[in-house]
Amino acid sequence: MVEAHTVLGEQVSMPVRIRHADASSALFLVDARAAAELLAGTGLEPLTLLGKAVLSLAFVRYVDGDLGPYHEFAFSIMAKQPGRKDSTGAYIHWLPVNQSFTCEAGQSIWGFPKLMADIDITPDGRGHRCEVRVDGQFVLALRIADGLPMPAGAGGASIDAYTARNGILRRTPWIMNPGRVRGRPGGARLELGDHPVSSQLRALGLPARALFSSRIGALRMTFEDAATVLRTQEAR
Prior knowledge:
Elements: E1 4-7, E2 10-13, E3 16-30, H1 32-39, E4 45-46, E5 48-49, E6 52-65, E7 70-80, E8 89-97, H2 100-110, E9 114-116, E10 118-123, E11 127-134, E12 137-145, E13 148-149, E14 161-165, E15 168-172, E16 174-184, E17 188-192, H3 196-203, E18 212-223, E19 227-231
Parallel strand pairs: 8-9, 8-14
Antiparallel strand pairs: 1-2, 3-6, 3-18, 4-7, 5-6, 6-7, 7-8, 10-11, 11-12, 12-17, 13-16, 14-15, 15-19, 16-18
């Protein structure tokens, strides 16, 4: 493992720590065949529940962390390595952010599919709403209701993150410590635009009722260095 990485002339020590953030997310059951198509070539297959793949949409407001303050939207699919036990993780398919330093760090350190976007996160009644635009084009808007208070430690277990970039599948240990968690069945409203990512979400069967949604009012996280899991023939 590397102790530090150089990003845009600055040293980023490992592990990267997020001391304060807040997040809203929703889980959906989606078309397993469409999910498998998004995972094609990664070395992963979708985790299924009742014959459906499990998809997460989330938006995060990073307030205090090693990569600075920024907003992020995450489109991920629960996945596993075929034939391997204990390989379940979240495959990060699309990860727009609104600051250039974290964009470069995410790409170069972990292989995250980060890109620059306009991400507006605002309170919306008894919930929060996130709108994402790329190059001025509306991609999506997601509103998450606050839900009911949940026990301390609820709101999402720590899970490794998979990324696939330049023919390399990587796995990053991702530790989460959530507080002030609220949740409920349903509780999400998704609007889609005409962007290619909007079309991918439609192919998965969205918009649809969420399986569950949650709001984390105080979130601490740690990201370890990425480990290479698999190299395709193109990357060798």
